[in-house]
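Input record, target 12 of the design panel.
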């Protein structure tokens, strides 16, 4: 099937193996892994000039890693990970071996889909500061999409390297056991308090204005949660995931329902945590 011109234009904006300058000392190299979960592909960000920090080296693809090394030109100092899903971290070890740079990440180990060969050189957590010479990054612990998810804030420029906290043109999947909808919404709320001027997501283009972007994501999640509650009211009895899914995601193509089911579980888990729903033997019931 031939892509539409709009799709061609979008893909042309994310050429694999090619550094794209984004201003404020940031370059983007998009991994060659476009798809339903990754959009245009996973973005690797290169920050700085005199010494370079690489965020999310992406997939273990030789040409992608060679492009990162060429763009760093011997100046790679830090390999930073937002989280360890298979499209974000597998390239880290090769970069570390080639350059001697250390790998930085959160300490939590994922239980679901993950980079099984992942190793950490240095742990990061909420509030840590990274002095990268001509720029500094503050570490924000933002669990929700993954329990080891971090964002990196350059307070001088206002850039937030956001990983899968946001996705240009769509919403990220929140999939238990590593995904937690209550944590995700809480992470979004705390980001509203940070001095962010531009969001750099792992998939797609920079997002602005940040307050509007964050509010829109929260509103979308709360609208979906309301549909979950409405569905539980409609059944007025313990209901299975299979029965609830087509009601809550009636606006989503059936081909996407297997992915939607994972987020539906996350919404139900949040409602259980909130004390609004009970779960028993694979069924859920609204309490009040």
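The sequence produced for target 12 reads:
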């Amino acid at each position: 099937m031939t892509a539409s011109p709009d799709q061609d234009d979008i893909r042309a904006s994310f050429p694999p193996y090619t550094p794209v300058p984004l201003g404020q000392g940031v370059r983007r190299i998009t991994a060659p892994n476009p798809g339903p979960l990754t959009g245009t592909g996973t973005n690797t960000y290169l920050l700085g000039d005199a010494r370079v920090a690489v965020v999310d080296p992406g997939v273990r693809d030789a040409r992608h890693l060679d492009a990162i090394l060429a763009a760093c030109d011997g100046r790679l100092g830090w390999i930073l990970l937002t989280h360890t899903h298979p499209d974000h971290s597998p390239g880290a070890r090769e970069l570390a071996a080639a350059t001697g740079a250390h790998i930085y990440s959160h300490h939590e180990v994922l239980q679901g889909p993950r980079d099984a060969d992942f190793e950490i050189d240095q742990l990061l957590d909420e509030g840590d500061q990274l002095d990268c010479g001509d720029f500094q990054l503050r570490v924000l612990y933002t669990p929700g999409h993954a329990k080891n998810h971090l964002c990196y804030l350059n307070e001088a420029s206002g850039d937030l390297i956001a990983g899968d906290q946001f996705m240009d043109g769509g919403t990220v999947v929140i999939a238990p056991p590593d995904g937690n909808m209550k944590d995700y919404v809480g992470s979004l709320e705390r980001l509203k308090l940070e001095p962010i001027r531009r969001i750099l997501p792992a998939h797609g283009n920079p997002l602005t204005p940040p307050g509007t972007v964050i509010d829109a994501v929260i509103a979308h999640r709360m609208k979906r949660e309301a549909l979950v509650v409405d569905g539980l009211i409609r059944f007025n009895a313990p209901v299975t995931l299979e029965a609830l899914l087509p009601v809550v995601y009636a606006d989503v193509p059936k081909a996407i329902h297997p992915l939607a089911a994972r987020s539906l579980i996350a919404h139900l888990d949040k409602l259980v945590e909130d004390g609004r729903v009970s779960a028993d033997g694979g069924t859920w019931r609204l309490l009040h």
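The longest strand covers residues 136-141.
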